[in-house]
Amino acid sequence: MHQMAAANSNASPLLNEIQNYLRVTRDDIRVVSQRSADGLTRTLLVMQILSEEHTMNRLGAMDAADAIPAPYRDTPIGRLIEYHNLERPPDVYTQAQLLIGMCMDHRKHLRIPDNFAYILRAGGANLRYSEFKVSYAIAVGGVRAIALIGHNHCGMVNLIARQEQFVQGLVDAGWEREWAEQHFQHFAPMFEIGNEVDFVLSETKRLRLRYPKSIVAPLLYRIEDNRLYWIRET
Ligand SMILES: [Zn+2]
Question: Domains, the chain, ranges and CATH?
C-alpha cells in the first residue's frame, strides 16, 4: 500500500515535468511514497496516481437519473446512460437511435437493448478514419446522436512505449523485423491519442462541426467499475 504525504515544497525537475505533462498546477501535485519501491517504480506510481486523480476530477458520475447532464436527458444519450448505468429495462427498438464510437479494447461491454445503436469500435474511440461509416449512420441510419466513449488505461495512449512489444509480437507472428518496425513507425502516430479525456473532447468538437444537427456527447468508460461518466467541457 502506498501512503500519501504532504507535497514536497522543494521544486524538482521531476515535479515540473509531471506538472507540465498533466497540465495541472503545483497544488494538484502530491508526492506519493511506497515502502520498498525503487526510484523508478516510485516515479511511475506517482505519475499513475496523479494521472488517475486528474482524470477523475474531469469526470462526472451518473448514479441517478438527475445526475445525467440536462442536455442529454430525454435523448438517446440519456437513454444509453440509463440502460448502462441505471439498469433501465430494455425497450423495443426497430430502428437505431444512436451511434456509439468506442475503443476496440476487450475490457468493455455495454448494456443496451437490441437495435438501439450503431457501434463503431476503433483504437482509442478514434473516428477520424471511420468518417464514411459515421456519415452512413447519420445519412442512411437517420441517427442524430453520437456517444463518444473513451476509457481509462487505453492502449492507444503513449503507444511509443509499446513499440518493442508490438514489433516483437509481429515477429513472433511471422513478420520480418524490418517490416514490423516500419509498420509501427508508419501507423503509430496516426493512432496515438495522447490522453484519453483530451482526445475524446477534441473528437467531440470535430464531430460537432462536421455534423452540426447531431448531439455529440463526450463520455468515459471507467474500467474499474464498468460505468459511464460524463466529461467536463471547459
Ligand atoms: Zn482503448
Answer: 2-57 (no CATH), 62-156+193-231 (3.40.1050.10), 159-188 (no CATH)
